[in-house]
Write a structure and sequence with these properties.
About 25% of the residues lie in helices and about 30% in strands. It contains ten helices and 31 strands. Strands 14, 15, 17, 18, 20, 22, 24, 25, 27, 28, 30 and 31 form a twelve-stranded parallel β-sheet that branches. Strand 9 (about 150-155) and strand 10 form a beta hairpin. Helix 3 packs across helix 9 (about 230-235). Bound molecules: guanosine-5'-diphosphate-alpha-D-mannose (GDD) and guanosine-5'-triphosphate. Guanosine-5'-diphosphate-alpha-D-mannose binds near residues 9, 87, 93, 115 and 151.
Length: about 400
């Protein structure tokens, strides 16, 4: 048997995701028409003998209650939300709930960060894990040497794939092979976390990494069971024949900013082209709107036949897209109203927002720049003929004049 655990974080994490995360927890922000965590959850469904999926986070229980019951019914796998009353770190959280996780007596525990986008080759990881017989297998990918320092970098034996060295976000370059935030472990992981807690090595590590003052201030708020998977567990386990890598040659991205959610929406839509083409819209402008590239349109959305949509567009429930509208590379959330002849490019349009006639709402399309895409928070109104370029608009604002490169609070 196997179980899967998805690390969700909580309201103090994912702050770069504002203003979208002001309305829903970051893991529920839609990518390619589905909440972010639907993608890893659907991938878990394909694990042989999967007994249960646990979501661990420090968001309020009620924020996930509806989601958890609907996804359990839809996939016919029990999904359960477990809440830490304060952040315990990426290893402390699973350790706290070890009795729940072990209830079904699993031989394998999959652990996934909620904010990564990839093809989740979980069965392949399990095969590799069984072959080398270690305690854990880490999904890894090669990235450019310039970007590697944003992630955990590791060195692996080219023949056995054993992890020989692991450093989290090193200041000097170690290797271009990085940790993707997707793992499979045997239950022995709990014994290892326990040793770290009992010996106090987690606090020793924190103390070493920060100044005395910084340490004293975090020590007051951090509980003694705060354990990080990367620094406190993976680093000391490297070179002990316990950790191995499985390298993906497919796509992988980390989703820390709204700009990256537009990029990841694109990756998931193109994955649908291969795995679930029925989810993608088709149309040539005769009886249905004209569609280019990969586009998702929720069945309840009303899109005018003269609208032109795509590539990389997802339109959520009850949205209304008027005549002559042009949408390119954008995420249109629930209940949005886009009036005649408006243009929306490289943009995320928040729930219940409206965009007026002949308005133009656009970003330049640099997913990594702070203002590289335009984001309208919930219930923003852009009036007729107004132009909004490379801007972030917080919820409930009405724009009656054009703006460029601005954050409207
Ligand atoms: N439940 C819970 N409790 N979840 C947490 C906590 C916590 O206290 N802290 C973080 N998480 C969740 C986050 O929501 C995320 O899904 C995951 O744990 C990892 O978050 P971080 O520890 O903040 O690390 P990161 O995302 O910056 O980097 C990690 O992932 C990268 C891959 O995306 C590291 O492991 C890197 O090495 C790795 O490259
Ligand atoms: P390129 O030659 O590809 O640069 O085309 P372009 O100069 O029209 O690019 P732009 O970014 O201005 O527009 C992108 C898309 O939106 C094109 O498909 C245009 O046909 C369409 N478009 C541009 N302006 C409007 C407009 O005012 N109304 C409508 N409905 N569509 C527009």
């Amino acid at each position: 048997k196997a179980v899967a655990v998805i690390l969700m974080g909580g309201p103090t994490k994912g702050t770069r995701f504002r203003p979208l995360s002001l309305n829903v927890p970051k893991p529920l922000v839609p990518l390619a028409g589905q909440p972010m965590i639907n993608h890893p959850i659907s991938a878990c469904k394909r694990i042989p003998n999967l007994a249960r999926i646990y979501l661990i986070g420090f968001y309020e229980e009620r924020e996930f209650a509806l989601y958890v019951s609907s996804i359990s019914n839809e996939l016919r796998v029990p999904v359960r939300y477990l809440r830490e009353d304060k952040p315990l770190g990426s290893a402390g959280g699973i350790y706290k709930f070890r009795d729940h996780i072990m209830e079904e007596n699993p031989c394998h525990i999959f652990l996934l960060n909620c904010d990564v986008c990839c093809s989740f080759p979980l069965s392949e990881m399990l095969d590799a894990h069984r072959r080398h017989g270690g305690m854990g297998t880490i999904l890894v990918i090669k990235v450019s040497a310039e970007t590697a320092n944003q992630f955990g970098e590791l060195v692996a034996d080219p023949v056995t794939n054993e992890v020989l060295h692991y450093t989290e976000r090193p200041e000097t370059f170690v290797n271009d092979l990085i940790n993707c935030g997707v793992y499979v472990f045997t239950p022995q992981i709990f014994t290892i976390i326990q040793e770290v807690v009992l010996q106090g090595n987690n606090t020793v590590n924190l103390r070493r990494e920060t100044s005395l003052e910084a340490f004293q201030s975090v020590a007051k708020v951090l509980p003694p069971e705060f354990v990080r998977l990367d620094q406190d567990i993976l680093t000391p386990l490297a070179g002990k024949k316990k950790l191995y890598t499985y390298e993906t040659v497919d796509f992988w991205e980390q989703i820390k900013t709204p700009g990256m959610s537009l990029r990841c929406s694109e990756l998931y839509l193109s994955q649908f082209r291969r795995t679930a083409p029925h989810l993608l819209a088709t149309g040539d402008g005769t009886r249905s709107p004209s569609i280019t590239g990969d586009v998702f349109i929720h069945p309840s959305a009303k899109v005018h036949v003269t609208a032109k949509i795509g590539p990389n567009v997802s339109v959520s429930a009850n949205a209304r897209i008027g005549a002559g509208v042009r949408l390119i590379s954008c995420i249109i959330l629930d209940d949005v109203d886009i009036k005649e002849n408006a243009v929306v490019i490289n943009c995320i349009v928040g729930w219940k927002s409206s965009i007026g006639r002949w308005a133009r709402v656009q970003g330049e399309g640099d997913y990594n720049a702070k203002l590289g895409i335009t984001i309208l928070g919930e219930a923003v109104a852009v009036e007729d003929e107004v132009v909004v370029i490379n801007s972030i608009i917080l919820p409930n604002k009405t724009l009656s004049i054009s703006v460029q490169e601005e954050i409207i609070l």
